[in-house]
């Protein structure tokens, strides 16, 4: 079955000319569109309507994909609606995309502009490329939608894309850090090694015997590993941050009561938990202003 084209639609509370400017001028476009690091227009020949350009995308430090594009013309209806068609591709084998086509449409209305895109592409590497595209295509759709929301916030609120993306990636770096911390704390000192200090603190705070404490520590470790996995679910991240703001002071106090010596040990529970508590607060503050792909429609006729 042929995969469906990528479709993204968003409402921008500003006039069509401003949306057109921010999406058609290369130096503005490359700032908000996560899919491109740079866009360079080539000089047009006299009387030529087609605009050609080159683009590049940084995959990781030291590695980038470059390609070509053709803006195949625009037209404006009496209603003020505009359309920009696009043909694009790359010769670089690192890219799963070989060549594609799509369009941008701008539809003005009383409250602003409906800005939408639909595009599709052919993949390289035959059957293998099609299998890779089952993962790659949803990522491309998500990246397009996230970029559209960044554009919307830039036009409506004046906040630069760089600031928005810095906040976005800082938030998810914090979430991945929490996932790592809880996973490590559950797996290594509790499940794999059953560190004596873990068992000792548990038996000090409960009526469990040493043997029972050793078994309980394993189950606590499993619970922490599952808790770590929850950090990878976007819908759960805000509630988890709120939970940590509440529980870290209690976890710190419990550890000190169970084993007072841990408070003066190098890299001790106080410094660790206070750091994680502050990061939880920072994460909550960042979350309130995050750009999100959820603000876009991903199917025609569907709500965002």
TrEMBL record:
Keywords: Membrane, Transmembrane, Transmembrane helix. SUPFAM superfamilies: Bet v1-like. The keyword Transmembrane applies. The chain crosses the membrane at residues 169-188, 208-233, 245-264, 270-290. Coiled coil: none annotated. The keyword Membrane applies. Pfam families: DoxX_3 (PF13781). This is DoxX-like family protein.
């Amino acid at each position: 079955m042929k995969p469906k084209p990528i479709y993204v639609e968003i409402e921008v509370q500003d006039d069509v000319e401003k949306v057109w400017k921010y999406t058609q001028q290369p130096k503005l476009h490359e700032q908000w569109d996560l899919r491109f690091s740079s866009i360079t227009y080539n000089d047009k020949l006299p009387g030529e309507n087609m605009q050609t350009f080159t683009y590049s995308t940084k995959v990781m430090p030291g590695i980038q994909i470059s390609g070509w594009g053709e803006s195949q013309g625009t037209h404006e209806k009496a209603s003020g609606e505009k359309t920009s068609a696009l043909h694009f591709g790359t010769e670089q084998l690192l890219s799963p995309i070989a060549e594609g086509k799509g369009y941008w449409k701008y539809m003005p209305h009383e409250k602003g502009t409906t800005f939408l895109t639909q595009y599709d592409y052919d993949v390289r590497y035959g059957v293998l490329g099609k299998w890779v595209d089952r993962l790659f295509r949803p990522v491309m759709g998500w990246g397009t939608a996230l970029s559209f929301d960044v554009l919307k916030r830039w036009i409506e609120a004046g906040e630069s894309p760089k600031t928005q993306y810095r906040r976005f990636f800082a938030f998810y770096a914090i979430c991945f850090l929490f996932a790592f911390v809880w996973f490590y704390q559950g797996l290594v000192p509790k499940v794999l090694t059953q560190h004596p200090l873990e068992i000792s603190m548990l038996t000090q705070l409960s009526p469990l015997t040493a043997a029972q404490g050793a078994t309980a520590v394993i189950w606590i470790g499993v619970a922490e590993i599952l808790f770590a996995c929850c950090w990878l679910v976007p819908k759960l991240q805000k509630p988890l941050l709120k939970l940590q703001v509440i529980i870290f002071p209690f976890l710190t106090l419990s550890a000190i009561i169970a084993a007072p010596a841990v408070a003066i040990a190098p890299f001790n529970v106080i410094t660790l938990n206070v750091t994680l508590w502050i990061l939880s607060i920072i994460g909550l503050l960042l979350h309130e202003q995050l750009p999100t792909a959820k603000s876009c429609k991903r199917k025609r006729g569907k709500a965002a």
